Amino acid sequence: METREGVLELLLVSAKGLKHAHHHPRRSKMHYVTIQCGDQTVTSKITQGRGKKIWWNEKFRFSLSAAECKELAKVTLTVMERDKFSQDSAIGETRVYVGEIIAEGSERDFLQMKPTPYNIVLEDGTYKGALKLGLKFISNVNLEQQSMDCIQCSLPPKQPCIVYRSFLNFTLPSIPWRRFLFFFCARSDDNKSRKSL
Question: Which residues constitute the domain of residue 31?
């Protein structure tokens, strides 16, 4: 079957077991990821983490022509460590081979891979840490069309009345209205008697 244009969606979930380029024991580390998909390069948000796991939970969408879908073999993710006092350092990179995902997604019109860990390769060729990534390919759709569909899906009609109604139904029966009214009536009678004195 002929490969068609589509959208490759990458979900950058988290990283764990990273090697740190700068050794500052008291300072929390700041990380971000650069993602290269063919001619397109994007950068994730900068995440600050003290623990063993760093979270992004960020989605990236790449619109691919039919020719790009045929030629694209891999997506390269480079994990960077941010340092305020020196140049940012590359910790390592992960290569995700997406050729088969795109080919199968073109046949099925849609293919989704659940988030799984991918090894991070260091400069010396050894492995240290992992990036957790999810992948999705939607065939025969462009990015503008998909983003419009997402906007329409993510804006449900507002129904504030239901929220207020359920809140009032929950709280009103539990308020002792007689005591509440008696308290204010007693206070007003007390104020009148003071004024008359």
Answer: 11-142
